[in-house]
Amino acid sequence: MEEKEKYLNPYIGGFLLGTVLFVAFFIASEGVGISGAFARITAQLIYLVDPFYTKNNAYTVHYLYTGNALANWLVVETFGVFLGGYLSAALAGRIKQRVEKAEGYPVASRLLFAFLGGALVAFATRLTRGCTSGQALDGISGFSVGAWIFMFSVFAGGMLASVFFRKQWKDV
Amino acid sequence: MPPLFANGLISNGLNLFIGLFIGIAFGFVLERSGLGTARNIAPTFYFRKIIVEQVMISAVVTATTWVVIFSLLGWIDFSKVFIPATYVWPYLVGGVLFGIGMVMGGYCPGTSVVASATGRIDGAVFAVGMVAGMWAYYEVYNAIQSFANSGYAGRFTWSKLLGGDMFSTSYIITVILGISILAFMGYMRNITLKKGDNR
Question: Which end of chain B has the smaller Cβ count within 10 Å, N or C?
């Protein structure tokens, strides 16, 4: 996997990330987050098909208080994450269509696990009130004990399940 | 006093506008640090790479240091910043499910967005899977509602648990835990790479 430009030192990357996070605290009065945006996008998609579902569902109903589930800071910020990721990769010459997996591992299996993994992660974020951004980064930076409970559980779950997905990441 | 939006010092529109640029900076740094690809994320669960821990822990140590400095100088009222409440049982169970999904899918939500933006089809498929997972949660929410709200402890910080305040207990424990995890993961990675196994 030849890349035109090397990645940033992870500690410098972390320093910049932490500073961006603090700017979010300082201005928006909340940290960065992604899963909340996906929850809202999903609620809005369902609303387009079946408005009654979104209005009558005990979970999604509060997303409609502002009239549109997408009128929210997290949604705008997540759109920015997409743009920022594209910008960084484009400047470094790293935009390329590909599927990340071990060599020789079937593409269909990889994409099936990507889909199922995404679904499981999303489901979990509703229980945990956020993901590795909105719960772990924001919570730990806000001195929350719960965010550490979340993060230790993530690593426990990932390491326990890792044996089943070894082939997928064999030479990665 | 900041935080600006919570204290009414900027309008909702301006906050959203700035939010776009905060997102751009966030995505930019994630990609720059190498977290836009499953190749640098999934191996963390096999102790082969620890970029995830290096970036996350230096990020939280940096952010908490800014919080402490700005609070000491009276430049921010951190109690006005939204921090997710603690729900013990859902966080334990949800965290384990999240970890399983992460090693299965190779991403977490933010990194899948960056991966999608950079041409990774597996990242885009992960993001579509997330929409399905959200919908599944809405479908079963009524049945699991009481569990989802169990073990509620509010804004439960280290100083609330152990005494002291943000500047002593909370900050020190966050830094010590972070450094300990980095040391542990670095040690495990070195053993794994030396033995050449865990493939």
Answer: N
Q: Which of A8, A137, A169 minimises the CB distance to B32?
A: A8
Q: How many CA atoms lie within 13 Å of B28's alpha carbon, on the beta-carbon side?
A: 14
CA proximity to B173, closest of B73, B64, B82: B64
Q: How far apart are CA A63 and CA A68, in angstroms?
A: 7
Q: What is the DSSP string of B93-139?
A: HHHHHHHHHHHHHS--HHHHHHHHHTTBHHHHHHHHHHHHHHHHHHH
Q: What is the pLDDT of residue B199?
A: 64
Interface of A with B in 97-126 (CB under 8 A): 97-101, 110-111, 113-126
For B121, which residue in chain A has the nearest alpha carbon? A99
Domain boundaries, chain A: 1-97, 101-172
- What pLDDT score does A64 carry? 82
Of A58, A101, A124, the CB nearest to B98: A124
d(CA B99, CA A153): 7
* DSSP codes, A69-96: TT-SHHHHHHHHHHHHHHHHHHHTT---
Asked whether the predicted pLDDT for residue B42 surpasses 80, the reply is yes
Residue A77's contacts (CB-CB under 8 Å, 6 or more residues apart) are A24, A28, A32, A33, A37, B19, B20, B22, B23, B26
The structural domains of chain B, with segments of one domain joined by +, span 12-195
C-alpha gyration radius of chain A:
18
The interface pTM score, or ipTM, of the predicted complex is: 0.96
Residue of B18, B32, B93 for testing the chain A interface, max A β-carbons within 10 Å = B32
B73-92 pLDDT, tens digit each: 999 999 999 999 999 999 99
| Confidence tier at A3 by pLDDT (50, 70, 90) | low
How near does any CA of chain A get to the CA of B150, in Å?
10
Instruction: Indicate the SS3 state at residue A30.
Output: strand
Confidence of residue B194 (pLDDT cuts 50, 70, 90): confident
Which one has a higher pLDDT value, B129 or A5?
A: B129
